[in-house]
């Protein structure tokens, strides 16, 4: 027996030694994996040029492609998961039930979730709210395009540019722009504006551009004298809807676009500053010889008035050759 025990001792010692060596070898391997993992993670960021990663409003569209936004971000996997069986079991001891009832008596009763989905919030009335709630305000510009507006919202006092296109605005009231002395551009294209108060735009000393195309206007209100561009195309304005000598005092007016209305004659007098006059697709049938040129002033040349459009009218321009003698270019229209 003693001899057998002596033979087994070396084998036991060999087993213990092998176990110790395996433990020592596993520890460095584990440490090596920990060291290699951060190196692998850091290698993912070596190709990023973080110094030049400057996202601005100008470069935003170049850096991010939002055309496939819905494909890139699938929010279905972010829905919180509900685990079943996580509620605590009801106590078996009936003595604990009154205490539980007392502790929860002050809490509100929670309704179980409905299978029909989340309840949408109550609609907020649009009218009467500040423009920066209904629209997008960036600096001195207010963007209200396609916002479902039925009237012009209250604007910040420093507003310089207003874009309220593609809405359902039906009228421009006298107080809509009151006190907005910095307002330079008003764009109300593609609305349902059928009338504007006579004083709606008169008290705007900085207004340069008034854009009202594709509306239902039948008359023009009084215009501010600093106006540079007036666009009222595609309305229903007859000649009777223009004030007498409506554009005489607009000494800075350069672009006057009145096409696709119901005008019977060319509105005169036209300011010397005018560069572009669009009157196509009206009902103009005649004109005076001094419509564009002063018949009393010999050698007059209106060099800046280079763009006159009278096409789409029943007028024959060849019957009025003296009316264009001071113009650098003949108007566009019918000459036969």
UniProtKB/TrEMBL annotation:
Q: Where is the LRRNT domain?
A: 131-161
Cellular component annotations (GO), alphabetically ordered: extracellular matrix; extracellular space
Under InterPro entries, the record lists:
Leu-rich_rpt, Leu-rich_rpt_typical-subtyp, LRR_dom_sf, LRRNT, Mimecan/Epiphycan/Opticin
Q: What is its main location?
A: secreted
| Pfam families reported in the protein's UniProt record | LRR_1, LRR_8
Location of the region described as Disordered in the Swiss-Prot/TrEMBL record = 87-122
Q: From the record, what ranges are coiled-coil?
A: none
Question: Could you tell me where this protein is found in the cell?
Answer: Secreted, Extracellular space, Extracellular matrix
- Please provide the record's keywords in A-Z order: Disulfide bond, Extracellular matrix, Glycoprotein, Leucine-rich repeat, Repeat, Secreted, Signal
Q: Which domain of life is it from?
A: Eukaryota
Q: What is an annotated GO biological process for this record, any one?
A: collagen fibril organization
Signal peptide positions on this chain: 1-26
Q: Which SMART domains does the UniProt record give?
A: LRR_TYP (SM00369), LRRNT (SM00013)
Q: Which family does it belong to?
A: Belongs to the small leucine-rich proteoglycan (SLRP) family. SLRP class III subfamily.
Q: Which PANTHER family match?
A: EPIPHYCAN-RELATED, OPTICIN
Q: Per its record, how is this protein called by name?
A: OPT protein
Encoding gene per record: Optc
């Amino acid at each position: 027996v003693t001899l057998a025990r002596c033979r087994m001792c070396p084998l036991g010692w060999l087993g213990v030694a092998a176990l110790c060596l395996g433990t020592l070898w596993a520890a460095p391997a584990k440490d090596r994996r920990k060291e290699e993992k951060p190196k692998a993670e850091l290698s993912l960021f070596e190709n990023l040029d973080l110094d030049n990663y400057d996202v601005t409003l100008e470069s935003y569209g170049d850096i991010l492609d939002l055309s496939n936004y819905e494909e890139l971000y699938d929010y279905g996997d972010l829905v919180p998961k509900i685990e079943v069986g996580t509620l605590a079991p009801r106590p078996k001891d009936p003595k604990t039930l009154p205490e539980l009832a007392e502790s929860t008596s002050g809490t509100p009763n929670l309704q179980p979730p409905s299978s029909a989905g989340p309840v949408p919030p109550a609609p907020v009335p649009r009218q009467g709210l500040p423009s920066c709630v209904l629209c997008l305000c960036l600096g001195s510009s207010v963007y209200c395009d396609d916002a479902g507006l039925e009237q012009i919202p209250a604007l910040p006092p420093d507003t310089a540019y207003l874009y309220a296109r593609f809405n359902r605005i039906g009228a421009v009231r006298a107080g809509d722009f009151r006190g907005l002395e910095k307002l330079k551009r008003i764009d109300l294209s593609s609305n349902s504006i059928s009338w504007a108060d006579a004083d709606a735009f008169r008290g705007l000393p900085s207004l340069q551009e008034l854009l009202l195309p594709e509306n239902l206007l039948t008359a023009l209100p009084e215009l501010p004298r600093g106006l540079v561009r007036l666009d009222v195309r595609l309305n229903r304005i007859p000649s009777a809807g223009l004030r007498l000598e409506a554009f005489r005092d607009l000494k800075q007016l350069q672009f006057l676009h009145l096409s696709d209305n119901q005008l019977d004659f060319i509105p005169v007098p036209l300011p010397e500053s005018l560069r572009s006059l669009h009157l196509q697709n009206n009902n103009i049938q005649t004109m005076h010889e001094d419509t564009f040129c002063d018949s009393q002033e010999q050698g007059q040349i209106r060099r800046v008035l280079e763009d006159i459009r009278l096409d789409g009218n029943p007028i024959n321009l060849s019957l009025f050759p003296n009316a264009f003698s001071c113009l650098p270019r003949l108007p566009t229209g019918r000459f036969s």
